[in-house]
């Protein structure tokens, strides 16, 4: 945990907040036709890639065409999830009043129902970013991603759980909304999840039916190849989304906070927490588009409802403000951030210093105590015999 109050004085925090507010106000005032044209171009490209991928599957008996189909569908799914779905559902284009870009009704091509995700992500995650026991994205209820999460032998499987989560990421996000960890703790009853489960079933049925029943059947005798192609495209999308999201939230230098630290938080303090609890990934223009501009996770956490295409143009300004106040601005290439995340996953699988010793010591103490009880009983028996 870090001490937010130790970073800057109250006056500095508020001035820091005003400078970031000024950036936001400037961008909001400048939103217009160029932003609408951009998202429409991305949507048109995504739809074109999906149509191309579905069409190429009819030639899937030829390996080059099957690979081209998988590549086309993979990019289509990545764009739909990252640059379109994630950003539209954040309300980044609500100002346009275009029905297809309405954050409250938009649905994406992934297992997680839009309504469930809007609650767990837009509200819980972005309000309580990196606040332990409040931000359920810390470890997704599966992983130990913070040293202040109480260690349990279960977490020895951290690397295995992380690998499975990466492979089945869309289903991990789908399952995440059920809040099983809270049900286990008794904080939430099964009956209270009825509506969430209804939406989960409906969306899962739709996704499975589309990718693994309808489209394979449409290709007739090539159905097995189409099934495999769709599964491969989903796998590529899952691995990519997992990598980008985890690199924005869990590299080594990213910090977490306690609930006490964030009580009565001002706007400036909220901004400060976003800076300290996020990391960027360096790359070129295409890389940023494919990441949904979540490669600018710092800017996204600061301004989640501003069109993500604007993050690159304000990144240098945000970084300069951080330098002015002596604050870190975590950033690095994808391979470096991935290595940092992987190291954290493995490191936090291990018990803290003394925990394993205490665990083993507890068993030793109990064994010693049991042996002592046996010795005492034998001595009592001997003394009783002598007395007799």
What does this structure look like?
- The protein is mainly alpha-helical.
- It has two domains: 4-347, no CATH class; 355-388.
- 63% of the residues lie in helices and 1% in strands.
- The chain is built from 15 helices and two strands.
- The chain has helices spanning 10-30, 33-56, 63-89, 114-127, 158-167, 169-176, 180-185, 194-218, 223-249, 267-276, 285-290, 297-302, 311-324, 334-347, 355-387; strands at 280-281, 331-332.
- Strands 1-2 form a two-stranded parallel sheet.
- The longest helix is centred in the C-terminal third of the chain and has 33 residues, at 355-387.
- The radius of gyration is 26 Å and the shape is globular.
- The termini are far apart.
- Residues 363-388 have low confidence and may be disordered.
Tell me the quaternary state: single chain
CA-based shape: globular
Q: Order the strands across the largest sheet as they lie in space.
A: 1-2
The amount of helix comes to 55-70%
N-end to C-end Cα span: 66 Å
In percent terms, what proportion of residues is strand?
Answer: under 5%
Radius of gyration: 26 Å
Features:
mainly alpha; disordered C terminus; 2 domains; single chain; 15 helices; 1% strand; globular; 388 residues
Topology, please?
Blueprint: H1 10-30, H2 33-56, H3 63-89, H4 114-127, H5 158-167, H6 169-176, H7 180-185, H8 194-218, H9 223-249, H10 267-276, E1 280-281, H11 285-290, H12 297-302, H13 311-324, E2 331-332, H14 334-347, H15 355-387
Parallel strand pairs: 1-2
């Amino acid at each position: 945990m870090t001490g937010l109050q130790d970073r800057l004085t109250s006056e500095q925090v508020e001035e820091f907040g005003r400078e970031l507010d000024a950036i936001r106000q400037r961008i909001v005032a400048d939103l217009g036709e160029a932003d609408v044209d951009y998202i429409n171009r991305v949507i048109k490209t995504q739809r074109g890639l999906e149509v191309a991928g579905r069409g190429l599957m009819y030639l899937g008996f030829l390996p080059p065409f099957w690979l081209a189909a998988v590549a086309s569908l993979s990019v289509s799914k990545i764009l739909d999830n990252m640059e379109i779905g994630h950003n539209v559902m954040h309300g980044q284009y609500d100002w346009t009043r275009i029905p297809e870009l309405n954050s409250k009704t938009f649905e994406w091509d992934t297992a997680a129902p839009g309504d469930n995700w809007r609650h767990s992500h837009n509200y819980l995650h972005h309000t309580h970013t990196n606040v332990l026991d409040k931000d359920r994205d810390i470890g997704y209820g599966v992983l130990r991603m913070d040293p202040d999460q109480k260690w349990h032998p279960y977490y020895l499987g951290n690397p295995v759980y992380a690998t499975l989560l990466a492979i089945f990421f869309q289903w991990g996000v789908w399952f995440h909304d059920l809040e099983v960890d809270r049900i286990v703790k008794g904080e939430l009853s099964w009956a209270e999840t009825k509506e969430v489960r209804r939406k989960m079933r409906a969306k899962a049925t739709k996704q499975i039916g589309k990718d693994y029943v309808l489209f394979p059947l449409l290709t007739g005798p090539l159905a097995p190849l189409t099934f495999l192609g769709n599964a491969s495209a989903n796998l590529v999308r899952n691995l990519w989304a997992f990598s980008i999201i985890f690199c924005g939230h869990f590299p080594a230098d990213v910090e977490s906070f306690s609930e006490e630290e964030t009580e009565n938080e001002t706007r400036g303090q909220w901004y400060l927490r976003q800076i300290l609890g996020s990391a960027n990934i360096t790359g070129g223009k295409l890389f940023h588009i494919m990441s949904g501009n979540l490669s600018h996770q710092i800017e996204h956490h600061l301004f989640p409802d501003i069109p993500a295409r604007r993050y690159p143009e304000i990144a240098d300004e945000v970084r300069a403000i951080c330098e002015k106040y002596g604050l870190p601005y975590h950033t690095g290439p994808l391979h470096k951030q991935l290595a940092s995340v992987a190291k954290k996953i493995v490191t936090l699988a291990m018990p803290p210093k003394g925990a394993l010793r205490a665990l083993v010591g507890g068993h030793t103490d109990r064994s010693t105590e049991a042996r002592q009880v046996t010795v005492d009983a034998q001595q009592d028996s001997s003394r009783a015999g002598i007395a007799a």
